[in-house]
Write a sequence for this structure.
């Protein structure tokens, strides 16, 4: 079981307008923490891609999503709907 960070930017409205997203993040994983308004830490056996797919299905096209898996020895991340992916890749690899 790994910890995954799920962070999103809701471009229109707030989390109250996304009841299915709130339900997934609260109940769809083995354990969760909600340390910031748009940041959740969830515990799951799902892969980063599987979590991304589930969350992305509940967002609007203009919203942004970052899912990062932290397993203690490596960090895997998947970012959606943003042009910052290359910069984030460089940061994660220590090349920024």
């Amino acid at each position: 079981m790994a910890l995954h960070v799920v962070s999103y930017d809701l471009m229109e409205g707030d989390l109250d307008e996304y009841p299915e997203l709130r339900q997934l993040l609260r109940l769809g994983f083995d354990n969760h923490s909600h340390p910031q308004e748009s940041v959740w830490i969830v515990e799951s056996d799902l892969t980063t891609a599987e979590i991304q797919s589930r969350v992305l299905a509940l967002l609007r096209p203009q919203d942004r999503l970052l899912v990062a898996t932290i397993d203690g020895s490596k960090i895997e991340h998947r970012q959606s709907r943003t042009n910052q992916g290359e910069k984030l890749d460089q940061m994660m690899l220590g090349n920024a």
The domain at 2-92 is CATH 3.30.70.240 (Alpha-Beta Plaits). DSSP finds three helices and five strands in the chain. The mean pLDDT is 80.
